[in-house]
Amino acid sequence: MNKQRSKDYRKQIDQALATPKLQDALHKFGDAFLVSREKAFGGLDFEQLRGRIAEMKTGVREHHGELMEQFIANAEAAGAIVYQARDAADANRYIADLARRKKATLGVKSKSMVSEEIHLNKALEKAGTRALETDLGEWIVQLAGQRPSHMVMPAIHMFKEEVAELFSKETGRQEPAEIEHLVEVARRQLRESYFQAEIGITGANVAIAETGGIALVTNEGNARLASTLPKVHVALIGIEKLVPTLEDAARVVQILPKNATGQLLTSYVTWIRGAVPCGDEEKELHFVLLDNGRSSLAESTQCRDALNCIRCGACANVCPVYQTVGGHVFGHIYIGAIGIILTAFYHGLDNAAELVKACIGCRSCVSVCPANIDLEEIILHLRETVGDEEGIGAGKALVFRKVMQNRKLFHTMIKAASMLQKPVTRGERTIRHLPLFFSPLTEWRTLPAIADTALRDAFKAKAQQVEKPRYRVALFGGCANDFLYPELGLDLIEVMNALDVEVFYPQEQNCCGIPAIYSGEKETAVELAKQNIDAMLAGHPDYVLTTCPTCAMALKHNFVEHLKDNPAWAKKAEKLSSITVDAASFVLNQLDGAGIFADLAEKEKITYHDSCHLKRGVGVWQEPRRLIKESGHDLVEMDHADRCCGFGGSYSLTSHPDISRKILADKVHDIEASGATCVAMDCPGCMMQIRGGLEKAEVPVRAQHTIELLAAALRNKPTEK
């Protein structure tokens, strides 16, 4: 079953990748969104705003019972009828029974992802009530027989020509593919339905405990019409939408449109409290409060922060996977990073399993989340859960548990592989073609060969002459630096020695464990954390340096998280975390060493690629740029400098090389368009991906680590006479 599900999912990916028009549209939207969002937040402190939202929503979760009681009491006092639904079936039954009692033949709906979550339209149809979507995007996908591909913009995947064809079938005449005309067609077709409908259905962006009221944040007048004209209004509300006060609701309203669509404010903000007269009859207002897995999510210590989500959809807007395959592939009902988590709890882990694996882990979603949710961390936990339930495969299990946990065996096998690769390397450091079923991996990029001499061995022969060291630092090489790019480690020694820093290389260090974590194999990750903590602290270094931001995240964050429940190990993990620094920021922040590189390099036009885990994980992006400029180069910014290159470790090799290939092609295009002759970066994984893509595409741009550029500048330093 799991194999068939995976096979079906890959077919969906292939279909999406064969639609370049879709990718072009999503990329253009993503680019425009970032510009609009930046303008919308101009003069505001986004970090402060999202910190307040996170604090408020966490407080709601911790006091949910009493806030729910307060909301219900105030809502009922104002005339609303409140029903608490355990799950989708319960909510559907209540609303369908209500529609039957009211003899409703037509229900008008404004956009509501919660109604999509429970498949309300189908339940109403069985009850004899036609549910008509009145949001433009929702109406379009309803006519197409599809589901929304985005939480805020349901029909973003469709083009005006497709919409014109749908509308033509609906109206019975040929409708031109002109946006203004199509909007007018929708308005004419839907207008009368508000007066005919016996029931109106909406969602709610917030439910306010203090007042017992709700707020709707919309860009179309349909929500106001659907909630006021029919004699019965049903608001279907996820129980996580609770906020304590009107002031808290205002904070959500302040940040939501800016982060969702880049607007200062939406066209309509509608506040509803209590039932209001409707002609000669009293209007009925029903609040259906839906659980449907939310309480289970609240009980999960690893995942519960996902309940802080305010449903802006921004995590999809910036996601390279979403921009490559769209929401119908990278989503179930809810899409994007938050959709993965909600799917696991609202619709079952089996529906989320492939989505969990499709996440590339670039942390773009984390950087824009208005509720400050560490979405990647939660997804990694779900990946571990999937691994526990489904297994990670016999091959991976063997590699992680039997090989990688045994450092000597692991390194012996890598040395053996360096010999076995000779037929495909042909004496070069690059693999241009792989045979048989491995050949797709080198169709779109070259791959680095395993070095003849690993860094751990080359290090022993590297002379260091530092008479009075300012610091004595340990280098954590990581697999790529150690076995693929040992020259990078040797260059780091040159740079550090020039700054009066002595470097040593702990021989007992092993893989950082990130490949295991991303494969759902936590047992191996924990064992590797212990091995590396002991290895790196044994020599009592002043600092531990990394040239790989993914390794830096492991040492600074993952080890601490893995061992937090073991007091003895937790203390050592915290110690290692506190002294771990990436190389570029160490040069600037700890050594104040920029001056030594001043104008040493032969001037070259260089662009810079921000590695995902360096910028959005470690928080470093300015330091490498300053070092490049200080050394005399002309730094030019490429478009989308911090967009993922598509590497993601095993993601580009075994998980989803097809998605990785497309993301890399976008990065190569941006690098070439910059006009630079060299692209710098601070991640060996990105270097492997980008260098391989540039070489395969025959783009004459070098890919180099910032440390390599600094070492080259030092070697070009004029000899003092």
Task: Describe it.
By secondary structure, the chain is α/β, with parallel strands linked by helices. The chain folds into four domains: about 1-20 and about 300-385, Fumarate Reductase Iron-sulfur Protein, Chain B, domain 2 (Orthogonal Bundle); about 60-290, 3-Layer(aba) Sandwich (Rossmann fold); about 430-590, Rossmann fold (3-Layer(aba) Sandwich), CATH 3.40.50; about 595-715, Rossmann fold (3-Layer(aba) Sandwich), CATH 3.40.50.1860. Helices cover about 55% and strands about 10% of the residues. The chain is built from 35 helices and 22 strands. Strands 1-12-7-4-2-3 form a six-stranded parallel beta sheet, sandwiched between helices. Strands 8-5-6-9 form a four-stranded mixed beta sheet, sandwiched between helices. The longest helix has 21 residues, at about 20-40.
Task: List the main descriptive attributes of the protein structure presented here.
Rossmann fold, 35 helices, 22 strands, 721 residues, four-stranded mixed sheet, elongated, 4 domains
Oligomer: single chain
Mean pLDDT: 93
Total beta-strand segments: 22
Number of domains: 4
CATH domain fold name of the largest domain: Rossmann fold
Helical segment tally? 35
Shape: elongated
Rg: 28 Å
Unreliable runs, pLDDT <50, ≥5 residues? none
Distance between the termini: 74 Å
What percentage of amino acids are in beta strands? Answer: 5-15%
Q: Regarding CATH, which class of the largest domain?
A: Alpha Beta
Helix content: 40-55%
> Helix- and strand-based class?
alpha/beta
| Biggest sheet strand line-up | 1-12-7-4-2-3
Described by strand count, sense and barrel closure, the largest sheet is:
6 strands, parallel
CATH homologous superfamily label of the largest domain: NagB/RpiA/CoA transferase-like
Would you identify the CATH architecture of the largest domain? 3-Layer(aba) Sandwich
